[in-house]
Amino acid sequence: MAENYTLKIRRYNPESGDTAFWHEYGVELDPERSVLDGILQAKDREDASIGIRCSCRAAICGSCAVRINGKTALACNTRISDAADRAGADAPIVVEPMNNMPVLKDLIVDMDAVHWKKVRRVVPWLLPDGPPPEREYIVPAEAMIDVTQSMACIQCGACVGACLSLEVDPEFIGPAALAKAYRFVGDPRDGQTEERLKDLAEDPHGMYDCTHCFACIEVCPKDVAPMSQIMRLRRRATGDYEIKDRNNGYGHEKGFVDIIEKWGTLHEAQLLPRSFGDGSMIKGQTEPGAVKQLVEALPTALRGLKSGKVTVKKALLHPKLPDQDQVRRIFKEIHFKDERLELNMYIVGENSDEEEPAMGEGSQET
Amino acid sequence: MGIISKVHPVRSHSNAAAGGINAALNPEDSWESHAFDTVKGSDYLGDQDAIEIMCREAPNEVLHLEHLGVTFHRNEEGKLGTRAFGGASAARTYYVADITGQALLHVLYEQLMKFDTIDRYEEWFTTALVRDDSGRIAGAVTRNMRDGAFELFTAKSVILATGGNGQVFIPTTNALICTGDGIAMAYRAGAPLMDMEMVQYHPTTLAGLGLLITEGARGEGAHLYNAEGERFMEKYAPNKMELASRDVVSRAEQTEIDEGRGFPDGTVALDITVVGRKRIHEALREIVNVGRDFAGTDITREPIHIKPGNHYAMGGIKTDINGQTEVPGLYAAGECACVSVHGGNRLGANSLLDTLIFGRRAGQHAAEQGRGVSMPSPAGSELARERDAISDIVSRDRSGRRLSEIRAELGATMDGKVAVFRDEDRLREALEKVKQLQEEVKTVAVDDRGSVFNQDVLGVLELQFMLDNAECIVMGAIERKESRGAQYRTDYPERNDADWLKHITLTANGDLPEVGFSEVTMTQWEPEERTY
Q: Taking the model in full, what pTM does it have?
């Protein structure tokens, strides 16, 4: 049932003196095989000089992240027929090296220069308080399951390659390293939680540099959901430690949440002063530091007025949602909970529906 | 001290050790019980002194890893929790979901980043070991894959932790990098190999691709069925059922398949749905993904088709309990080594343990020994020799076969003739084929003539390593005229303790290896009939 596919691979050989070029390879594979199988077949049959890191073929070693039709993915767990469908009728499957990292050869990028450098930035090892206990650390089972989501990261760099913030700010610590940071922040055995959070909050390229674009969540082959881990770092920094960062992330988040609790929709005119005032409207209009920032932000406010996005009337009288009570009930519900509820891939399994086994004694399957 | 690896260390194949790591850590459990299970699992070919060391040291090793930060699964009291595993008389497998090996590897790499005084040579390919005039190890020749530059690292001792040789077989659960490099280099440097015929076929691998479905699935309660809906392990291992040791389960499956009770694609069914969806998501997440991505099966709702597939080399470089080979200064640990703790058949969740215990012991021993010896001075000719070998391959004209063809032919031969059931005739055919391919590889053509990440030329070196491994596997299998552990000879179907309760060693000696024997060390367990 093998079918024919065309792979259009971006080639680059630093020794040739030539710039990168495209080359198309015809391969013949079962539809359920992977893009990596396609590349390996092209290497086997046509040109073994195509450079790609690969090893396990099973999405556990993290070697083969590339861009397929513009989207970052592991070549080994992207079905070649799916890639062909996405490429469109008669169009080849386009395979390129990842973004945001220098290309060394063909599909091989310099992970050390970017990815691993950023990982090292977050002090990526456990820092417990004092000597270890005689036996194991006693910690809640849920806490271990919780950090296992970021432990599931295989350091493939797909999120780094896809990160839009990194494109703008190459110094951004980035999704993979911040997810790694959560692996320690969320680990009850680590004794430096507050210091870690402070460090990542105060770094202008730290956790508040993420713009919520979801690209990392979309491309992660292991459901680590790096952006969610970044959001959890932020929640812990603001909620548990009231850590105030250099670029007003704390005030912005607090102001935003308070506004929604009060009005239900965003009160544009109050967001800026609240952001500059650690979330407080009064502080934002009285504290010298906040006022200075407010004045600096005047041109933005004026632009808003000019375009009609903000009006004097709206600024003074922001209407509440008709069902604002319902919004408040949600807030109350969340505040009432002792522990924070987090979405975690290791505990998404449905609880109750214990079904009959699919095959039992005497059942037939042919 | 330096660490040289042909891939970035976190890409290593320890990642694939999904299910867990064994240790008798519970007060109700004992190291003796763990040791006995291991001895029995090995079909009495394991060396009992080494097994005792491994099982005694296991609890502290697991605790040490926990202290370093491994996110081991906890029970309701917040203590380390266990799961059941094959061939074990107690639930003593500690785990991180089904990414245990990955978690261990990544946490150990965290420690490497912490102690960055240890030099790391990542993506440096070692081509040969170097000895000085006295025969002592003197270092290794390596090639920086990034720019093709050669380097001779001089060292008082070299510890090989280069993993297995599964790529000799196709299909295999092993990664593409598992080409037996270290085993072949040690063999060429004069170190004997041991029990190379003992090749584990894992009971649950995907047909075609050969990818692994962790034994953790059966540990969590999954059942095996043939195409007639029969839970066939009742016939082969009425007590342990699906959790008999791997050689037993693989043979049972292969028998069902060979006798026509398998599915048309040459498989039987593994039904994980009995485990319950919540638990599957919590503890077997990885194989949910493997099933979905690589077999199009939702394992939480339907059985998945599996078959026995090449998985692990019990044999390897012969070492003592400190990882020392017979070449002074040369050590080996992990899958490339044969201490032997696994004998004829490795128990699930004993491989990470073997690697960690004997890796540590080898490191400590090498460090102590190193104090007493001076830095060797290798002649240096090895560097030129290795560099010339590469330029010879690169500049060769393209008259020979393609590398990929030879590799594929080797893999098919080994899987076809040296798998679960073996006999003299087919083993001889396999040996003949391996010898033929060894000749053909000498003229193999390469496409890549560059220096930067020339994976093509390194593929030739890997293929040569693989052919050395293959030759020794087949030689051992021909030599051992009995059935024990993973070696099942249809022409010698019984275990024969009188003649064959001994290790087979192979030492490089021209065209074919020289065969020798070494005694199995017994401490407290006499061989018994093995039933599960």
A: 0.92
